Amino acid sequence: MTQTHGLDVVADLFAGRPAPVAASTAERVVDVLRGYLIEGRIVPGTRLSEEAFAAAMSVSRNTLREAFRILAHEKLLVHEMNRGVFVRELTADDVTSIYQFRTMLETSALAQTERHTQAQKSKIRLAVTEGLSAAEAEDWRGLGTANMHFHLAIAGLAGNRRLDATMSQLLAEQRLAFHVMTPLKDFHDPYLTDNVTICELIESGDVEEAARHLRAYLDRACAQMVRAFEATS
Amino acid sequence: MTQTHGLDVVADLFAGRPAPVAASTAERVVDVLRGYLIEGRIVPGTRLSEEAFAAAMSVSRNTLREAFRILAHEKLLVHEMNRGVFVRELTADDVTSIYQFRTMLETSALAQTERHTQAQKSKIRLAVTEGLSAAEAEDWRGLGTANMHFHLAIAGLAGNRRLDATMSQLLAEQRLAFHVMTPLKDFHDPYLTDNVTICELIESGDVEEAARHLRAYLDRACAQMVRAFEATS
DNA sequence: GTAGCGCGGATCGCTCAACAAATCACCCGT
DNA sequence: ACGGGTGATTTGTTGAGCGATCCGCGCTAC
């Protein structure tokens, strides 16, 4: 980095840019595919043919395999030797495991009050209002993502990049199971009021009670999801 | 799965097997490379030439690239577009971030007393004795891995596979920084007595005090590491 | 009928060779 | 010393190819 400017004016110009849209082809493929997976556009369990997908995305088989390897590492795909890659199918155990881990992360983040910043707290509030307006517009998919933002913001209270990363990955993984939750309204809507309560508790400084509430909330959500899950299997 | 056997006799035959040594070539490469990286045999910052490594490990460039992608995803390598992959160089911030996260995970696991099993607790004790005998034999590298096993066992108290996975990954990542800690004795030895104390506290059922002790311990270790870190840079 | 067997056909795992594009190292003129 | 051009090196990606493995199907034997 050449130190030509006293203040880094140039850096500011590019600061708010939406990331160069994934430079490499493989990463672009990963992003697209990940989008499909967490939106449930490909049913869990289906095999992803290398040839077919390579053709569909106009990339070589080699590049596609790089992408597959990454997504398998993110646990969105399963790689079975000499058989191919499949969209991950979550079991009921996976769901409880994910929720258990989430509970640990989120309550832990909540407990680190000395790290909480005003910026993070306002992100929580933002996610809540996002959810409220999505509900008002009866945009249930939007309500789902708002809910995700809420929990990411909670985890963000710890101010730890690594925690944020694992949290997003957990949520992505969890989304694989959302296709069994139909209609989405029934799943997300009841928790909106919980989000409001928790947000207010945090703002009022009573993180203890917020954590208790959150824990109960997550237990309930987990139980509901497991129930819906075992009903279909 | 064909249901030929009433009791699954066959499964037992293969139960204790040391995993088929990574079936695919790419995974084998990943394992070997990961071994090198966490042992510090390749200095952080060095570029890993595709051609050279492909030749050295007798695999094609394409397969090697798959391996590189995975290791980059594990944050052991850094991939820079059109420049190549480099062994990750941790910053002091990384170290504190890792320790902060570890603290959250380990104390969280410790707090979930209702999930603690006797099997897990004995694993902790095992790691402690492993460390004691390593210290007696003046095997400082062995003491390091014993210490790792200790913390993995603590995290294992939560009984959550995902937590275990992120914990191992964190420890692997942290190991990238161990090469600055020379001699290893001075870094690991002081903490052996702490391990003993914490183990006893857990066995006596006083997880509260164990958590406090652990937290202080990790803070100290982090500070020491950061100090050693900034001394070299 | 059904359990075992063998035989393609499809797909994966991996390699090799090639080429465009980007980066790097070096030299040059100023 | 500094900016700029130029060729060498390395990466990004592709395409073809081949052995290995798995799957489905039909055959046979009991």
Architecture overview:
The structure is a homodimer of 233-residue chains. By secondary structure, the first copy, chain A, is mainly alpha-helical. Chain A has 2 domains: 9-87, Arc Repressor Mutant, subunit A; 92-232, Four Helix Bundle (Hemerythrin (Met), subunit A) (Up-down Bundle), CATH 1.20.120. Chain A has helices spanning 9-15, 25-38, 50-56, 61-73, 92-111, 118-136, 140-156, 161-175, 184-203, 207-232, and strands at residues 47-48, 77-80, 84-87. The first copy, chain A, has a 3-stranded antiparallel beta sheet. In chain A, a hairpin with a 3-residue loop joins β2 and β3. The longest helix of chain A has 26 residues, at 207-232. The N and C termini of chain A lie far apart (57 Å). Residues 1-14 of chain A have low confidence and may be disordered. The interface between A and B is medium-sized, with 28 and 28 residues. Chain A binds a DNA duplex (30 and 30 nucleotides) through residues 24-26, 49-51, 59-63, 65, 81-84.
